[in-house]
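Exercise 7 asks you to align residues with tokens for two separate proteins.
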Amino acid sequence: MVNLRTLCAALLIFTGVATVQANEIIQMGFIKETIVLEQRTLAIEHHPSIEDGELGHVLYFEGALFDQDHQYVGILYGTTVSIDITDKTGHHEVRHRELIFVVNDSQIIAEGVSGYSDDVKWGKPNAEWHPLDLVVTGGNGKYVGAFGTLKTKKRKDNTFVHTFHIYKPLLPQ
């Protein structure tokens, strides 16, 4: 059981932290930005001891990123982990996805879960995926404090189109 001294000390610390944070509140606005990037996969590496389609299967990948003018702008680092495997009756495999986009020396982080059917998994040529949605959870550099959504679509030529709808805070100068 928590003793009274510990409880009072915790309350005092919490009050002090809340007061400091309240004194630092500033008013800010946000700007909405849409970014479209094309990914051309460079490297794919599977977990060595867990087969694709099995629970816990990890896929690591990276790919060059290009803007809509086909200019190189950075690189994508990503992982997917199989977190739910249904029976073999055509249901989707659920994977946790984490993507780190390094764009012009800044980063955008996105993550979430997506379903994958057998006919659209990695290595299936000429397979086009329905768009997969992720949450933009943050970034650094030009994208500090960014949040929003990311829609990823795989095309038949094994390239990907990533469309961001993000909000960035207008930071004080």
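Second protein for Exercise 7:
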Amino acid sequence: MQKITATLNSASEGFHIIILTHIVYEFIERKYQPRQYIVDMLNIFDAFNKLNSKTRVECIIGGHIHNDYVSSTSGGIPIILCDSDSYLFSANRFVRKRRHVSEQCITVFFPDYEKGVLNLFRFGYGKDLQIPLK
């Protein structure tokens, strides 16, 4: 955890930091929840944002659960989990067709800092999303 803190503190003023990770949540006891080491990491990101007004962790992007799932840290940093590009293992509600564009799931992220939102555009199946940045 010290390396994460040191890396965040080395960011230049005005940087917009986006965290990419495979695992944020796991399906534990019939609900999505993080393991303790992930909670500790999320707390570091929240603490960093409390201390910095010009350099911020804007969002955390992950996967692992093969579903779209949006939540936030206790400090309000958006956590965005994206469905996978996997025909066999998706639990998402969108219909997929093999050998068709709907089989694929590609997400493109466009932050709009003036409006304070993160736009997610979907290619293949799924819906476009717009997530407020705190």
